[in-house]
């Protein structure tokens, strides 16, 4: 490769890197702080985190033939935070087992309307995804196809109107945190699908471009090849501090 070509490729990587907040990277995995309202995964031609990461790897590691990227978990479009991808099939398989067995610990921050009665506790519900809708509801335990949802919560800060909660889901159901918070009279700011007050974050005319006050703050996982536990933390988006500064620590 001549000097000119190398400089061109380095420039392309530098162009992509500012748009990717990379939290971890090795031969097996790459973790990124997903911005909202970017999709985690989408068909070719539609902007997504998957597409950006693939482009980054393709250029940085000179892979013209294509890039494999396993996606063991996803964040909802209006949610930001830690997202991890596998860079080969063996790595994907090993990480998928951890997600399936719920051995990976996930920590979320949520700014909600109101304040929980108790400063910490456990939310336990049965959730049902509505047919042909991207929405779920709380139902009775005996409801057909219902799945149990368990989340540990802790109050971090609050004021007269809002609270900052730490949420640690033990299960991974569709819209679990959003729905469980809303059901308890604590809707997440910006989440009008589940009763959250608007607005939150940057102004957006389109519903698809709106964001909500839910951030995947931390991911604790076991690296199956390095044989070590790894904790990844993602800073919340730049529009969070103006809300957080008004909250008093609990």
Describe the structure in your own words.
The protein has helices spanning 3-16, 49-60, 89-100, 176-183, 241-244; strands spanning 21-25, 29-34, 80-86, 105-113, 120-129, 136-139, 147-158, 162-169, 214-223, 228-233, 248-249. With 250 residues, the protein is an alpha+beta fold. It has a single domain, classed as 2-Layer Sandwich (Pseudouridine synthase). Helix 1 (3-16) packs antiparallel against helix 2 (49-60). The N and C termini lie far apart (58 Å). The mean pLDDT is 91.
CATH fourth-tier homologous superfamily: Pseudouridine synthase
- Quantity of strands, as a count: 11
The gyration radius over C-alpha positions equals 19 Å
**Largest sheet: number of strands, sense, barrel closure:** 11 strands, mixed
Describe this structure in a few short sentences.
The protein is an alpha+beta fold and 250 residues long. It contains 5 helices and 11 strands; from the N terminus they run H-E-E-H-E-H-E-E-E-E-E-H-E-E-H-E.
